[in-house]
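Session log. Operator J.P. requested a structure for one protein chain; no other inputs attached. Running the standard single-chain path with C-alpha cell output.
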Amino acid sequence: MKRTFHIKTEADTLLLAQKIAPLLSSKHVLLLHGDLGAGKSCFCRGLINALSSEPVEVPSPTFTLVQEYDTNLGTVWHMDLYRLNHPEEVYELGWEEALGEFLLLIEWPSRLKYLTPKEAIHLTLTLEEDKTTRLMTLEAPDTIDFNLSELVYD
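Structure written below.
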C-alpha cells in the first residue's frame, strides 16, 4: 500500500506525523529516506511527541547515532545511520536487541544494505521542483498490519 502527501510547511510535517503515530506498533520499523534537510528528523520529532504524554525534546541523532525514548507505545529508537561505513556497524548500536522489540525510526536506511528488514515501512521525502513543496510518500508491504486507508490528512 502506498500514499503520497504534499507538504508545504514544517507544521504540515508535524501534523502528518501525528496522524501516522496511531497506526504504528512497537514492532514496526520505519525507514526514512531523503536528502539532507528533507524533513526526516522533523517528522521523527512530531511522531515521538505524538506518542508521548508530555512534550519531548527530540534532537537529530546524527552524532549519538541512537536516541531512545519512552513513550505510551513503549520504547522508540530513533537512529541516524549516516555515519556508518559498513552495515555490520549497526550491531554495535544494539540492532539485534531492538529489532522486533521496539518501534525503530531509521534515518539513512540505505546504510543497512542487506540488513534492511523486508517488513519495513518506507517514508520518502523529496523536494519538488518549486523548492517549497515536499512530497512525502509512505509505503508499507501488504504483509504487515499498517492500514494507510485509515489515514486522513487534509
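Operator note: The CA atoms of residues 92 and 139 lie 28 Å apart.
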